[in-house]
Each structure stands twice: as C-alpha cells, then as structure tokens.
Amino acid sequence: MTVTDQKIQVAIPNSVFANTSDLRGKTEKAFRLARALGMFRITTCWIYRSPFISKKQGERDAFLLKKILEYLEMPPYLRKHLLPHQNELKYIGAMGPLGIKTHSPKKIGTENEIREGVLYLVNKTPKLDIGLNYLVDPINPPSISLKNKKIRVTVQLKYDHDKKRFLGKILPPHDIKHYYRGYKVQIINESLGIFLMRRKKENFIITTSRHCESLKKEHISEIKTKKNLLIVFGGPYHGIHDILKAENKHVSQISNICVNVLKNHALKTLRLEEAVLITFVKLFSC
Fold first, then answer.
1. Burial per residue of 157-193, b for 16 or more beta-carbon CB atoms within 10 angstroms, e otherwise
2. Who has the most CB within 10 Å: 213, 266, 269, 282?
3. Thinking of the domain 7-99+182-284, which architecture would CATH place it in?
4. CATH level 2 (architecture), domain 102-173
5. In a 3-state reduction of DSSP, which class is residue 280?
6. What is the pLDDT of residues 50-99, one digit of tens each?
7. What is the pTM of this model?
C-alpha cells in the first residue's frame, strides 16, 4: 500500500511552543511542521493536551498553532474569503509559500481539473471562486442555506461550450480519494490516553520516543500494510512516556508499536518539527 492509499494522521502536544517565546519563532516552527504535513499528505493534525503546561497556556498555544497551520494550508485565493489576516499571522508572509499543489492553479482552467473553491452568494445566486479570473456557476449547488455563509468545497471543472466558460461540479469526499486537498487541524479536548484508546480500533497507532526500540525494516513493512495510521509525538521537554505516565497509562496500552526513528544522532534532543520530518522520511520514503 502506497502513501497515497493510506490515511495518515498525526498527534502533537499543545506544548509545541514550550521552547519558543516570540511570535516569529512560533510561526517558523509551525511553518516547518506545515511543510512536513503537506509533503507527506497528512490528512489530519490533532493537537492534544499536555499535562505539563497550564490549561490557559495550552489553550492559547493550541489555538495559535491551529490558526497558523490552517492559514498555511489554505490556497491563497481562498484566504480573503475564509481566513482574513490577523495580528497573530503577521509573520506568515516571511515564511514563503507552503507549496501544496492546490495552491498554485493557473488562471486558465482545464476540463476535469480538480480545484479547491469557496461557495457563497452573490446577489442571492450561488457562485464559486476557484482561482480563475471570473466567478464560476456551480452545476450542483448544495441544498443548504448559504445566507451569510462561505463554504470551502472541492470542485471539478466542466466546460460549457454554449457559455464559453467553465462550470463547477462540487465533489463529495468519496469522489476525491487520490486528490490531496491538504490537512485538517483539530484540537483535542481530552487527555491523550483517552483519545488514543478510543481510536485504537480504527487506526494503527505509532508512538515515537527515544526510549523505544530502533525503527526496523519489519516495522516499515507492517506499517505499509495498514490503511489508517496515527503517529503520535511528544513535546519539547516531555516525551510520550512522561505524558502518558502523568495520565496513569503506559505506551504499551495505547499504541501498536513504539519506535525511535533516529537512534544515534549527535544532539541532546530532537526538536519536534525535526522529529516529525525525520519520522515521515523514515516511514514513507522507502
């Protein structure tokens, strides 16, 4: 099974910024995470609660990380509709583009091309902004009310020879299996142990820690056979074992395997964003 056939999710702690004090540094860290998520087609990034920071700080950092990641994931032409620029995002422009394929469509579309778009009312008529130099009429507008709403959708272009312009066919999720639209970001309002226990039936859970055994070929072979993966990372100062111990749980209770992806590195510790990228490379580049 290839990475395009797998649904890959990750879970990272809300203590991700514990070793970063200023907004620019936090933005840079989030940008490196976003690049790794997009590069390896991650579908969902879960932000879980760390027991080692205050509830107030954890919530603040989780919302900041979510806001930055979501802004970076969204195609630039949709941001003006769905994510207006805010003060917390003032350093985004210095990071450069994320580079997901959905971000740079040509102004001239092609038949059956798939794009991200936003659906909203213009003079009470549903219209789609899909990055062309004109708004597009939807072939199959949804039955829900669009009053005071703007909805992100995935659209397939269909050329109307009479109107000499494209129309947009809104696609349901099951029609876009091998199309990567980007990742979603979700904040978990429960402990990591409970979250993972509830997802263990549907997902093959991989925890990462320097205290676990080295990643082996047999691990990679097994991982490649699994359709739904959930990869869990610890924080800057407290790893998975510490976090679960604080919840009176053990790694063996909630994960299928626990691996150390870089056993003999020369640093005291790996930064979270480094560990994420190295883990993805080791697991999915062979």
1. beeeeeeeebbbbbbeeeeeeebbbbbebebbeebbb
2. 282
3. 3-Layer(aba) Sandwich (3.40)
4. Beta Barrel (2.40)
5. helix
6. 999 999 999 999 999 999 999 999 998 899 899 877 899 999 988 887 88
7. 0.92
